[in-house]
Amino acid sequence: MVRYRLLMLTSVPIIITLLALIALTMYWTVMYTWQNALKNARADLAVAHHSMELLQKEQRMRLTALSESYDFQYLLRNDEAKLSEWVRQQAGRYDLDFVVVHPASALGEFSKANRRLLMNGEEQTFFQQLDEMALEDLHPNLPARAQIPLLSEGEIESKGLVSRSLIPVFNEQNNLQWIVDGGMLLNNSTSLVDRIRDLVYASDTLPEGSIGTVTLFMDDIRVSTNVPLDSEQLNGRAIGTRVSDEVRQAVLASGLTWVDRAYVYDDWYVSAYEPLRDHDGRRIGMLYTGYLEWPLIRIYLTNIVELGVGIVLVLLISGLVVYRGARDLFRPIEKIHQVVKAVQLGLDRRIGSLDLTPDHELEILGKQFDSMLDQLHQRNEVIKQASIELEDKVKARTKSLHEKTEELEQHIKLLNQARSKLVTSEKLAALGELTAGIAHEINNPTAVILGNVELLQFELGDDTERVKEELGAIHEQIDRIRNITRSLLQYSRQGGVQDEVTWQHLNPIVEESLTLVRSGTKKHAIQIETNLEAKCCVEVNRHQLLQVLVNLQMNGVHAMDDQGLLKVGTEDWIDEQGKTVGAVVHITDHGCGISKENLERIFNPFFTTRRSGTGLGLSVSQGIISEIGGDICVQSTSGKGSTFSVYLPDKAVDNSGLQLAKIEE
């Protein structure tokens, strides 16, 4: 409707503007929120780093306090033999995991950097990765406390990550006398990471539902963490799990500080990592801080939904205002639109009054449109009348032309029939004259040969047994020549001896033809199946029909290479109106069949695909059946067999009569 189209035209600019604002707002908020989240993560990592430094400083201060205590100084001056044992017992008092003293002679056990600082009287605190034996040297309980089962690998990590402080102790001569060695084992140190977490993530600093986590890594293994094994239930600690390959390559391999979103064990966290280095500057672990990403995303999505709801409400309110404000303009336009659609459907409608002021643009447009419709209606009436007159003239001319066309087609059809008959007659006359002469010329020498052979047999008497096979072959060839000449004469006379055409029952003639065929196929593996159901009598020449049936049946036998099943059946010939007009004989073989290119040529004289055939059998048979008004049709599939159907009318007609219609396959 026009109303909604105009509403769309007025609303689309608003919608596009709001969508653009939404896109910009989403982009800016995403960028700002994410960048702010990364800055917070970096700041959290810095706080954790400084917290770790403060803890190490506190650790160093405790060792300094130990070395300056009265008891330590007393034993140092009066009973150095008891000093080592007494120092080991002070670890728990100073909240340390181990405290030992080394004599100055053990300075060589430390690294070059450690030795230089100790000789200069400088205190030092550093991270160090120790194996099981080194841990046991510091305290017998440390190896057991340092063991961490690797959750996904089924192995146990025995090395330990320690925060170690060295305090040099000099004698009165300002010579290095003792080295106080103490620190904390970071493996499984949950209180330490929880203390750092509480310093980094104060209450109400994270989004609702999020958790802050801190982790200490030895290489890529979490040795102390408050990252839960289940981020939803907040159960357990992910100690003994490894960091992702991406983070390991960036922090441990390249020594970079990595700040981004990371998959921490079972969930995504906004994370920050930095390397932990030992006293020689080697990267031996990592410090991690991070918090769950999903609560941050949830807050962002909530803001987007609230923004979207607000925008939809603005669109609805603005659309309602536009719709109500333009309603008076929509109604006249809708009326004009409805009239236009009615006119398109062929209805005679007018706009009429639009209830507007006379000088209103839409009122003037409506009057002009009504005037145009009136003029169009008048012109349509004139065109309709002219169209009716023209249609009558066209019908009259078309009827006359149709009648003349039918008359011309009938004349052409008769002309083609006459031409076909004339051509056929000329061919048959010429062929008959030729075949009669050939047969006569062949019969004369054949008779001489036959007579001499019979004379030769008479003269030889009993000696004919020696040449019996040769004489038999001569007789066979003479019979073959006589059969060929008989076929030629038969074809030249178009049916042979003109016996009388009489009413005959079809089934006895078919049975007689089968008797002749069986006698000629006794030595062959031929089975004959009959189904004689014809009841109608037909007007035929008995001898000629017998000749046709025998010829067709023998053709079937030859097509099957003298073996197989030959089916012969008869039935009444029923026309389209259900009236009996004659009888039909079907002869079916299961031989080689006839190819499509040969199917149209099989009734041509002298056409044959057999070496011993004359090519006259089907042509003569077609001529015999055509003389009485019948027809021979064939259906064949190459490689499967053929069916010849002989259609015989109940009343024969001569050549000058009407030929029966060609039976379609």
TrEMBL record:
<keyword id="KW-0812">Transmembrane</keyword>
<dbReference type="InterPro" id="IPR036097">
    <property type="entry name" value="HisK_dim/P_sf"/>
</dbReference>
<dbReference type="Pfam" id="PF17202">
    <property type="entry name" value="sCache_3_3"/>
</dbReference>
<keyword id="KW-1133">Transmembrane helix</keyword>
<dbReference type="InterPro" id="IPR003594">
    <property type="entry name" value="HATPase_dom"/>
</dbReference>
<dbReference type="InterPro" id="IPR029151">
    <property type="entry name" value="Sensor-like_sf"/>
</dbReference>
<dbReference type="InterPro" id="IPR005467">
    <property type="entry name" value="His_kinase_dom"/>
</dbReference>
<protein>
    <recommendedName>
        <fullName>histidine kinase</fullName>
        <ecNumber>2.7.13.3</ecNumber>
    </recommendedName>
</protein>
<feature type="domain" description="HAMP">
    <location>
        <begin position="327"/>
        <end position="381"/>
    </location>
</feature>
<dbReference type="Pfam" id="PF00512">
    <property type="entry name" value="HisKA"/>
</dbReference>
<keyword id="KW-0418">Kinase</keyword>
<dbReference type="Pfam" id="PF02518">
    <property type="entry name" value="HATPase_c"/>
</dbReference>
<keyword id="KW-0808">Transferase</keyword>
<dbReference type="InterPro" id="IPR003660">
    <property type="entry name" value="HAMP_dom"/>
</dbReference>
<feature type="transmembrane region" description="Helical">
    <location>
        <begin position="307"/>
        <end position="326"/>
    </location>
</feature>
<dbReference type="InterPro" id="IPR004358">
    <property type="entry name" value="Sig_transdc_His_kin-like_C"/>
</dbReference>
<feature type="domain" description="Histidine kinase">
    <location>
        <begin position="437"/>
        <end position="652"/>
    </location>
</feature>
<dbReference type="InterPro" id="IPR033463">
    <property type="entry name" value="sCache_3"/>
</dbReference>
<keyword id="KW-1003">Cell membrane</keyword>
<feature type="transmembrane region" description="Helical">
    <location>
        <begin position="6"/>
        <end position="30"/>
    </location>
</feature>
<dbReference type="InterPro" id="IPR036890">
    <property type="entry name" value="HATPase_C_sf"/>
</dbReference>
<feature type="coiled-coil region">
    <location>
        <begin position="373"/>
        <end position="421"/>
    </location>
</feature>
<keyword id="KW-0472">Membrane</keyword>
<keyword id="KW-0597">Phosphoprotein</keyword>
<keyword id="KW-0175">Coiled coil</keyword>
<dbReference type="InterPro" id="IPR003661">
    <property type="entry name" value="HisK_dim/P_dom"/>
</dbReference>
